[in-house]
Amino acid sequence: MIKEKFDAIVVGAGMSGNAAAYTMASHGLNVLQLERGEYPGSKNVQGAIMYANMLEKIIPDFRDDAPLERHLVEQRLWVMDDTSHTGIHYRSDDFNEAKPNRYTIIRAQFDKWFSRKVREAGATVLCETTVTELVRDGKDKVVGVRTDRAGGEIFADVVVLAEGVCGLLGTRARLRQMPRPKSVALAVKEMHFLPEEVIEQRFSLKAGEGCVIEAVGTISRSMAGLGFLYTNKESISLGIGCLVSDFASMMESPYVVLDTLKNHPSIRPLIAGSEVKEYAAHLIPEGGYKAIPQLFGDGWVVVGDAAQLNNAVHREGSNLAMTSGRIAAEAIVQVKSRKRPMTKQNLALYKTMLDKSFVIKDLKKYKDMPALLHTNSRNFFTTYPQLMSQAAQTFMRVDGTPKIDKEKATTTAFIKARSRWGLLGDVVRLAFAWR
Amino acid sequence: MTIAGSRIEEKLYQNRYLVDSGRPHIKVRPHQKPSANLLALTRVCPAQCYELTDEGQVEITADGCMECGTCRILCEASGEIEWNYPRGGFGVLFKFG
């Protein structure tokens, strides 16, 4: 079907693939991007918060025409039990700046925009094309791809695997292992549509301002998980993600967990009267630094979710995806400009550059966090949230009980639930994993 | 706590799909007795594509599949399921994503 040989083939048109294709095409490389969906974004799911800084490094003037929903002025972090939430809210007028820092986006719309930029930069984008296999030469170097379209193989100097968290190509070609159930979360979410002004009233927002809620607690039913609510212009993204290993061992139905969250007394009034227009599910890499696979080889690099580049603690993924795509592309451009072949040795430049970026530095900082939260999920996602809720209620409720007795009751409840050593151990382990 | 009236069909009805008729992208291999992970799919699959038959075997109807890959993560390595992406253009088509 396609006779010419490309400088690079990018598999996938998500955040990392678009960043890579755009960067390489902007530097004059002959790029082919393949996407299995009907349009870019049709297979992609995200919460979604987009961080401006990382996109500015790729498309500085993106605010001129990118489909952005709301810029965030408030973040609420909640710890929930079955009837209550305890929260830390941070809201600042400083976030109402000329170039806001964080936006909510709707991926299907955002990805179409990003893909248009990729095409304008000169790349060829071919949708409705599933890449089925990598093509290798006699020396095992990746030299191209096979697709499900008639006509067979397409060749390139380098293949950028931006195939997403469940990427089949790299795992089937044994370039990396398939993610294990305990290093991926399954997230389900719904799009709840409400009039713009209703959203603004419910969250005390001015036009264009946005608010997000992220919550842990009994909503995840002792599984390691996180609930989220993001305000878009005229919709609310509401969802919850928990580890696949926990879903399997506890035999929970994701949509029932989501419906329970929707019916929580702290959430229900926020989405009351909404019209649901979509239900989506997607995996999220949660393994952190220790789950990062080999990132490059002869004729290939892997970027984004496929490379497990996701910061679960800070709930950042798409910015790591964009940045890894951009950096991989810059490394490829450098190798190309020196007229060197796309060998493993030369493509190691990508890893060197990525190691110096916030992507690897952040993941390294939290390298012990997944193991801590995932092995003690009951303590962190049920016991402590319940204790915190009880403590807050005991503190708030005025009923004639002497305050000294209330404090004793709270202390006793914590010690009874986790023991003195257990509490101390949790604090120490959390502190070590955080530093 | 379970939610009364929570039905997966109502959720999937909101979604857009282009089903590749007669060419399911996921298949369950014939088995005598499902493993714990395969059995878990009857609960864990977010589109509830997997069902336990009266004979005690697990079956799949992939039409409502959102291609999340959970079943692949849990059951591909053991060989109990065969997992591929749908042909280009087919499968779930997220309007919002």
TrEMBL record, chain A:
<keyword id="KW-0830">Ubiquinone</keyword>
<keyword id="KW-0285">Flavoprotein</keyword>
<dbReference type="InterPro" id="IPR036188">
    <property type="entry name" value="FAD/NAD-bd_sf"/>
</dbReference>
<keyword id="KW-0560">Oxidoreductase</keyword>
<dbReference type="InterPro" id="IPR039651">
    <property type="entry name" value="FixC-like"/>
</dbReference>
<dbReference type="Pfam" id="PF12831">
    <property type="entry name" value="FAD_oxidored"/>
</dbReference>
<comment type="function">
    <text>Part of an electron transfer system.</text>
</comment>
<dbReference type="GO" id="GO:0016491">
    <property type="term" value="F:oxidoreductase activity"/>
</dbReference>
<feature type="domain" description="FixC-like C-terminal">
    <location>
        <begin position="369"/>
        <end position="435"/>
    </location>
</feature>
<dbReference type="Pfam" id="PF26311">
    <property type="entry name" value="ETF-QO_FixC_C"/>
</dbReference>
<keyword id="KW-0274">FAD</keyword>
<comment type="function">
    <text>Could be required for the formation of a functional nitrogenase Fe protein. Probably accepts electrons from FixA/FixB and reduces a quinone.</text>
</comment>
<dbReference type="GO" id="GO:0071949">
    <property type="term" value="F:FAD binding"/>
</dbReference>
<dbReference type="InterPro" id="IPR059103">
    <property type="entry name" value="FixC-like_C"/>
</dbReference>
<protein>
    <recommendedName>
        <fullName>Protein FixC</fullName>
    </recommendedName>
</protein>
<comment type="similarity">
    <text>Belongs to the ETF-QO/FixC family.</text>
</comment>
TrEMBL record, chain B:
<dbReference type="InterPro" id="IPR017900">
    <property type="entry name" value="4Fe4S_Fe_S_CS"/>
</dbReference>
<comment type="similarity">
    <text>To ferredoxins from P.putida and C.tartarivorum, ferredoxin I from A.vinelandii, ferredoxin II from D.desulfuricans.</text>
</comment>
<dbReference type="InterPro" id="IPR007859">
    <property type="entry name" value="ETF-QO/FixX_C"/>
</dbReference>
<keyword id="KW-0249">Electron transport</keyword>
<dbReference type="InterPro" id="IPR012206">
    <property type="entry name" value="Fd_FixX"/>
</dbReference>
<protein>
    <recommendedName>
        <fullName>Ferredoxin-like protein</fullName>
    </recommendedName>
</protein>
<feature type="domain" description="4Fe-4S ferredoxin-type">
    <location>
        <begin position="56"/>
        <end position="86"/>
    </location>
</feature>
<keyword id="KW-0813">Transport</keyword>
<keyword id="KW-0479">Metal-binding</keyword>
<keyword id="KW-0411">Iron-sulfur</keyword>
<dbReference type="Pfam" id="PF05187">
    <property type="entry name" value="Fer4_ETF_QO"/>
</dbReference>
<keyword id="KW-0535">Nitrogen fixation</keyword>
<dbReference type="GO" id="GO:0051536">
    <property type="term" value="F:iron-sulfur cluster binding"/>
</dbReference>
<dbReference type="InterPro" id="IPR017896">
    <property type="entry name" value="4Fe4S_Fe-S-bd"/>
</dbReference>
<keyword id="KW-0408">Iron</keyword>
<comment type="function">
    <text>Could be a 3Fe-4S cluster-containing protein.</text>
</comment>
<dbReference type="GO" id="GO:0005506">
    <property type="term" value="F:iron ion binding"/>
</dbReference>
